[in-house]
Amino acid sequence: METLKLNRIKTVVATSSIKEKTAAIFEQYQLSPLFDVIVTGDQVEKVKPDPALYLEAQKRLDMPSQSLLVLEDSVTGASAANSAGLPFIIIPDNSSNSTIKIPDNFKYMITVLDSLESVEKWLYRNKCFDF
Fold first, then answer.
1. What CA–CA distance (Å, rounded) separates 42 from 104?
2. Could you tell me which residue, 75 or 1, shows the higher pLDDT?
3. Domain 2-125: CATH superfamily, name plus number
4. What is the structure's pLDDT at 2?
5. How many CB atoms lie within 10 A of CB 12?
6. Do the beta carbons of residue 22 and residue 40 sit within 8 Å?
7. What is the reported pTM?
8. How many CB atoms within 10 Å of residue 131?
9. Which three-class secondary structure state does DSSP give residue 5?
10. What is the mean pLDDT of residues 30-47?
11. Domain extent listing, the chain
């Protein structure tokens, strides 16, 4: 998150959780300063795997889809990003020790990485930052 902020890259949370629950977590872990936009499940008609959360986030950012990158930890969320036409990277949640099956129809999936640290390295390798 620090790297994104240093590079003036806008950050968004698009969660199916309701606003009150999200706000409590953000307050507990002091996350609010890290994000420019927060979209919660009670702010859209349908939640993931429906693309509404991502479409609302894109609308609030007022940016074209090719300028966005979604980081997802679940197939459900990745399905939402894919349906929204947004490029995405999957970082599987390995806390359950189960293997995820990635559908063949993920047209907008860029790659699967094992950690957020790997995402930062990927961003640098692919020259997503100005320096």
1. 30
2. 75
3. HAD superfamily/HAD-like (3.40.50.1000)
4. 84
5. 20
6. yes
7. 0.92
8. 6
9. helix
10. 97
11. 2-125
